[in-house]
Amino acid sequence: PNKRDFFVYNLIGDEAKPGLGIYANASGLAIHDIRASIETGKDRVINFQSHPDARLHRVDQHLVKMVRLVETEREVPFTRTRTKGPTVPKNVIQVEFPPTYTRQSRTLKLGSGGVLIPTQGKIPDRQFDTAIAHELGHTNNIYHHGDVDLKEVEWQADGADIAEVSPAGTTKPLRLFDDTPAMNEFFIPSAKLPFKVYIAKTGGQHSGNVGCLMRYAFAHATVSVADPKYRLFPSDPETLGQALCTSRTGTNINAPGRIPHPRYGDAAPNRGNCLHQVCVNDFFDNHAPR
């Protein structure tokens, strides 16, 4: 067939439709937005009425269920799988959106001097829609661009210095700079500490092609390649991608030759190239990134 079919049991409703459209355009898949369980067989099998001849029925093909949970400890969307990672629809339990992750959710903005400011505003439509597309990518065997970000850490006052506390241990004293050629150093008053931030690293989830929807774009700072105790703050918001990349090479802020250095660099080895990772066929249920 000219188009590969992908079936989504959409229990989020119309709010998810723009994200389904983004993923359809990026992946080239024909996405079927199913709202009624009567259109499926048991265990999410979508081709349960196919020919009984095994030669003509190669595999049970499954749809992907997408839900908004009533209660969860998670604050962001999550794809729950039996393989504990990206896979094909057969192994996907469901794509879960927290009850608070809507276009009216609480979010954080980066204010002057790197201070995080809570706001009770809307999650931008593009952010929500891209999250739908991103999670569906994981149900079609697409991995993140890397896995080495420090993720969420807490910055605490340590006398006149700042200490960074993460599951991996404590880093101190930190020095903070803006991510510009001048690398201007700045300081956060101890009275405004502690607070939590997301820290990225070269070759991690924020790396690679900035136009790719599988790339993260929300880090508050990144670890400097010049000194692991330096944290560089982006000077402007990053753009959310709406396509699927075809290479691990970093672009724009991640491009080779950027000063002071590519913010997050190329995607990790065997990551990126997301368009060619796409697999919806449940016959191939043991993929590794390639």
Give me some keywords for this one:
single chain; 290 residues; mainly beta; five-stranded mixed β-sheet; elongated
What does the secondary structure layout of this molecule look like, with pairings?
Blueprint: E1 5-10, H1 17-27, E2 30-34, E3 64-68, E4 78-81, E5 92-97, E6 107-110, E7 116-119, H2 125-138, E8 151-158, E9 161-166, E10 169-171, E11 175-178, E12 185-186, E13 195-200, E14 221-223, E15 230-233
Report the strand count.
15
Q: If strands are numbered along the chain, what order do they take across the biggest sheet?
A: 10-9-8-13-14-15-11-12
Average pLDDT for all residues: 86
In terms of DSSP E residues, the strand content is 15-25%
Low-confidence stretches: 108-121
Structure description:
This protein is mainly β and 290 residues long. Helix content is 9%, strand content 24%. It has two helices and 15 strands. The protein has helices at 17-27, 125-138; strands spanning 5-10, 30-34, 64-68, 78-81, 92-97, 107-110, 116-119, 151-158, 161-166, 169-171, 175-178, 185-186, 195-200, 221-223, 230-233. The strands form three sheets. An eight-stranded mixed sheet has the order 10-9-8-13-14-15-11-12, with no helix packed on it. A five-stranded mixed sheet has the order 2-1-3-5-4, covered by helices on one side. Strands 6-7 form a two-stranded antiparallel sheet. The two termini are 24 Å apart.
